[in-house]
Fold each of these.
Amino acid sequence: MSENKNTSCIFCKIARGEIPSYKVYEDNEILAFLDINPASRGHTLVVVKEHVDDVTKCPRHLLDRAFEVAQMIAQAMVSQLGADGVNILTNAGEVAGQSVPHFHIHVIPRYINDGLKLTFPPKQLENKEMEDLKDILNKAL
Ligand code: DGP
């Protein structure tokens, strides 16, 4: 599962060690390294070594492993970096802000007064639309 043959993907290159990174964690399936453009002190990316485009395409076992590692890192951020909270998030698709098309989880330590704003301006939806949305998703699951 750790085999990685994608030649152009930047995170595949990092996973193969062809591009240097500040490694935070590594095993045969998962690599975690510091984000080159940190949103906060310690901002880390967790990637599956095998090339997977995004979270929606990730096999369940690797998804579980990636989030397991993300949780461990989040705990270490609180206990060792003095983080007051942590954001764990992943972007899927360009429209959602994914700039590197290789599945990765952002683990972003948060500090009181760090000034970082991850906000979701609310959309007003009618009750009928909320019902319909719930039904569509509910049926698919
Ligand atoms: P996203 O926008 O969700 O696809 O996040 C991509 C992140 O990857 C972004 O925060 C910057 C980071 N990044 C891009 N290229 C490199 C790199 O070469 N090395 C490291 N360490 N991080 C990178």
Amino acid sequence: MTIEHDVRNLDLAPGGRLRIEWAERDMPVLRQIRERFEKERPLDGVRISACLHVTTETANLARTLQAGGADVVLTASNPLSTQDDVAASLVTHYEIPVYAIKGEDNDTYYDHLKAALDHKPHITMDDGADLVSELHKNRIELLPDVIGGTEETTTGVIRLRAMAKDGALKFPVIAVNDSMTKHLFDNRYGTGQSTIDGIIRATNILLAGRNVVVGGYGWCSRGIAMRAKGMGANVIVTEIDHLKALEAVMDGFRVMKMIDAAPLGDVFVTSTGDINVIDVHHFEAMKDGAIVANSGHFNVEINIPGLKALSREEPRLIRPFVEQYRLPDGRLINLLADGRLVNLAAAEGHPASVMDMSFANQALGSEYMLSMGKQLENQVYTIPEDVDQEIARLKLEAMGIEIDTLTAEQVQYLNQWQEGT
Ligand code: ADE
């Protein structure tokens, strides 16, 4: 029997299988969880609809959930991030229904979300909250079956908190993003490296000596700024938050308004979660040949409709993922990956080693949701701190790193208040 699917081409499966195996080698924490899940089957019979980037790392998460007894279906969380060979392998080798095709249009993207919801999930797993949003807007008949959900990313958590604040959220959700072992590593080191990787794969430019403008100084942006600096770029940061701006200054970056950075930048990268961070008046001030990319979840950070309206002709695809827009005076603006997540569209997303921790949180978050969900309110929760600590402990152990433990004397010292100077 062929598993239900809508993927590019099942013939791509053998290549996908090898790449899934390659990623697995760098996911020791998830592997340990999978081995326990195989024995304990904590998710037996649980239907999970997952809306995640379909990558080699996600494939290993799906295998873990399946090992725990879950009945998993997977749909893409972004039209451009799917790795078609991985989607094919999941269907062919792991019997996991997948609805995801790299480059799918918006209608197909939503048809795929609907197919994943037809699975009647007990648990939703989201990256950006599109699945939860679709369920609450158009599929409320599914609500009685849903125990809860998990959410991977900052943008999704912001959306879910807005829903909870409005009283619109109808089941509890674990904000995986808020675990220390997620945002401190995935957002910073994962986004940092994979964003630079995406820009370089798309353009093959030398970053050394270039002015790179980074929009925002949250965990993702600081990773991008740090890695761009490490490649020899002169990094400029733009911010709207005084504290974060001050941190960027003290981390050694130039900080200014986007409109002041616009004529200086050779490369622009946004990762703020907000809309029109690079707007029409910024394009108007940019140098000929400026490169503009986004690494935030949605393709709204760069005003692409505005850029289209400003251009005097249709954009030209000069290389894969590089579209040139010509301004009325002849200057060219190079837009990468249609303003979608450049790290997942033009590269392969975060490396497995960092997704290991993020997806350990997803796996343990779904287990926690299953056991605790009925007692939780319809709010957004963080994973318990001891789970977060345990993931860090397992990661260190897998890296062969041992750390000190407090002596009895040190414990006692920390618990007293009499001793001072
Ligand atoms: N988000 C960022 N990188 C990712 C990856 N490699 N797999 C799944 N989701 C991601």
